[in-house]
Structure prediction request, 305 residues.
Amino acid sequence: MIYDVIVIGGGPSGLSATIYALRARLKMLLVEKNACGGQMLMTDTIENYPGFGEGISGFDLAVRLEKQIKDCNVELIYDEVIAIEYNCFLKKVITKNLTYETKTIIIAAGTLIKKMNVPGESKFIGKGVSFCAVCDAPFYRNKDVLVIGGGDSAIQEAVYLSKFAKKVTVIHRRNDLRAMKILKERVALCKNISVLYNSTVKEVLGKDSIERVVINNIKTHENKYLNTNGIFVFIGLIPNTLFLPDVMVDKAKYIVTDEDMNTFIPGIFACGDIRKKQLRQIVTATSDGAQAAISAQNYIEAQLI
Ligand code: NAP
Prediction:
C-alpha cells in the first residue's frame, strides 16, 4: 500500500491537514503517538479561537476535531514515528511497529514540554511537580502553589489555578511578563496571585512530597527558601523533532518551511508549532495544516504531469 500522504501528529495542525487531505480525496494515514488534540488537551479554556468567544475547553475542542475526522473514516493509527526516509519519490515513515510508504509526508508533531532541569524537579514529578494545571489543579485546593514562567501558558494556567489554590505565586525570571496583555490584565485582577520577578527556581526540596524551593534572585544573586505544596512548570515548549535528520531543523530545532509549508525536501511539509514561525496559536496551527494538505495535493498532481 502506498499512501498519498501520511500526517504525523494529531494536534490541531495535523487534524486540520487531515480534514483537508480527506476532502481532497487523498489516500491518507494519520499517525498519532498518544491522543488526538496535542497541547489543547492540557488547556482549560480556549477563548481566542474564532467562533468560540464564550470559550471552549481544550478537551472539548479536541474531541470535536477528532470526531470530525473519524466521521470521515480516516485511517488513524496510534504509534510513535521514530524516523522518516526521503531519498526518492516514495518516502518512508518508520514507526516503532511498522514502516509505511507514501508520496508525501506532513510533519505536525508539535512540541514537548520544557523542564527546568534543576535538582529535585524529576524526583517530585507526580508528587508536587506538574506540567498540567487542568490535570492536577484539584489536588491543590486551598494550598499554596508556585507557577514557573511568564508566557501565555504560565499566566493562563496561574489564573486557572487561582480558582483552586489558596495562593498562587508566579516565579518569572525577568521583570516583565511575556504573556499577552489580556492575560496580564486578568492576573492583576486575581487577589490570590502574586508575581515574583527576576527570580528562578534553583532547587526543589522535600521528603516524600515538595516542601519548599530555593529561589534565586538573578539581580542580587541572593537565595531564599519559599514553602510550597506544588509547582506548576510552564517555561515553554521544545519542538518534537528528535526523530528527524538534523538537516531539516534550525539551531533551535524547529523545521524551516516556506509560507506554503514546504520544507526544503520536495514532498515533505511541516505545519503547526513544530515549524519556525512567529505566532503559535491553535488558529495558526489549523491554518498551517490546511495549507500543508493543499501543498501536498499540488505536489502529487504536479508529479502526474
Ligand atoms: P513561551 O511563550 O516560550 O514562554 C516561556 C516562559 O518561560 C517565558 O516567560 C520565559 O522567560 C520563561 N522561561 C523559559 N525558560 C526558562 C527557564 N529555564 N527558567 C525560568 N523561566 C524560563 O512558552 P508558553 O507560555 O508555553 O507558550 C508556548 C506557545 O504557545 C507560545 O507561542 C504562546 O503564545 C502559545 N500559547 C498561547 C496561548 C493563548 O493564546 N491563550 C496559551 C498558551 C500558550 P522569558 O520571558 O524571559 O523568555
Observations:
- The two ends are 22 Å apart (CA to CA).
- The CA atoms of residues 198 and 218 lie 6 Å apart.
